[in-house]
Design brief:
This protein is mainly α and 157 residues long. The protein has a domain at 14-68 and 117-146. The protein is built from four helices and two strands; from the N terminus they run βααααβ. Strands 1-2 form a two-stranded antiparallel sheet.
Length: 157
């Protein structure tokens, strides 16, 4: 009876390439896309601040948090979660007030806020879909490409 462990060196070169490539893309490409889209949106919201300044602020903030350690990173993630939940609560309060109390809503429930065919075109749908698929695929590839656990296998002779 022999015992063997599955090691990273047991992988084929193309498996290693795909694994490392997807991990690299997940850590570099996805944040870069998020920075670019967020900077473009914030530049439209605050035109006085150039998009490059937003990207620099995002990179500086994330670099600073990562350099200062995992405890600060955990605290920053929690603080950002709190900010997101507060923003969601404020949005919901204003939305409910706008629709139900200020009477700017329609006469009932409608899908109009979600689907307005006159404002959709193929280019918009293709762009949104490609961004969503890219982000999902990269994170899914990275999760599925982790090295397998070391397992003891028994070969019977």
């Amino acid at each position: 009876m022999t015992h063997s462990n599955l090691h990273a060196t047991d992988c084929l070169p193309w498996q290693t390439f795909v694994s490392l490539g997807s991990t690299l893309a997940d850590y570099l490409l996805v944040p870069a896309l998020l920075y670019a889209f967020s900077a473009t949106w914030l530049n439209g919201l605050l035109p006085a601040v150039p998009a490059r300044a937003w990207v620099l602020a995002f990179v500086s903030f994330n670099t600073g948090v990562n350099v200062l350690g995992i405890k600060l990173q955990a605290q920053a993630h929690f603080a950002l979660l709190v900010v997101e939940l507060i923003a969601l609560a404020i949005f919901l309060v204003f939305a409910i007030h706008f629709v139900f109390f200020a009477r700017h809503g329609t006469a009932g429930w409608s899908i109009t806020p979600f689907f307005q065919p006159q404002h959709l075109d193929g280019r918009f749908i293709a762009t949104a879909t490609s961004i969503a698929v890219l982000s999902f695929r990269l994170s899914a590839l990275t999760r599925s490409a982790r090295w397998p656990r070391k397992r003891k296998t028994r070969a019977r002779s």
